[in-house]
Amino acid sequence: MTQIKICGLQTPRDAAIINQSRPDFAGVVFAAGRHQVSPDQAKLIRQHVDAKIPLVGVFMNAPESMIKDLYDQHIIQIAQLHGDEDESMVRALQAHHIPVIKVFKPTDEKAKFTNAEMVMFDSGGGSGRTLDWQQIPSIDQPLALAGGLNPANVSKAIEIVQPTMVDVSSGVEVSGQKDLALITAMVTIAHRK
After folding, report:
1. Cα angle: 130, vertex 187, 2; to 5 degrees
2. Per-residue CA distances from 166 to 46, 59, 127, 145 (Å)
């Protein structure tokens, strides 16, 4: 079974869809972009998402204190780092008992040397561009795959890359809104693999 994270939640309605479709993880984005939420919005989403589904906070060069504060308030359970954060940041968060997903481009050699709990390969945060799955390097940590995934291509992506987890946001949206049918399809496909 491949785990799946549905990212880019913005509203209690999105949380309700997550509770129906049962992905392994849900995500809220604190980095600038179309899916960005405030800490207050994230708190509301956390209150509506089933407590059994961990909420991942997505950050890009955010202050360590902000991430720790969101974790201490039980808003997020995992930190996903999309920026230039170095290993000292990874270790500082882990020392605070925060699991870390560190995001890299497939060509970044540093992916092989991080101590993060999981390495994610993406084409660039929220770009929606699909990676060349044949170019994904082998690494020792659990691997997450993101970038342009949707119900039409995720099965092939899983077969080629064999990731621990797939991560999708815009690939399960219709007119910019999370779609229950697309999310349910994604979760079903991932969990079958």
Report:
1. 75
2. 21, 18, 15, 5
Strand partners of residue 27: 56
Counting the structural domains of the chain, the total is 1
Residues forming a β-bridge with 119? 102, 143
pTM, rounded to two decimals: 0.96
Residues 6+ apart with CB under 8 A from 7: 26, 27, 28, 29, 35, 56, 58, 146, 167, 168, 169
Q: Known catalytic residues?
A: 7, 122
- Which residue from 159, 151, 148, 97 is spatially nearest to 125, judged by alpha carbons? 148
Tens digit of each residue's pLDDT, the chain (193 residues): 999 999 999 999 999 999 999 999 999 999 999 999 999 999 999 999 999 999 999 999 999 999 999 999 999 999 999 999 999 999 999 999 999 999 999 999 999 999 999 999 997 655 567 888 998 998 989 999 999 999 999 999 999 999 999 999 999 999 999 999 999 999 999 999 8
Q: CATH number, domain at 26?
A: 3.20.20.70
Q: What region does 148 belong to: left with phi over 0, alpha with psi -120 to 50, or beta?
A: left
Task: Print the domain residue range for 147.
Answer: 3-192
Sequence-distant (6+) residues with CB within 8 A of 52 are: none
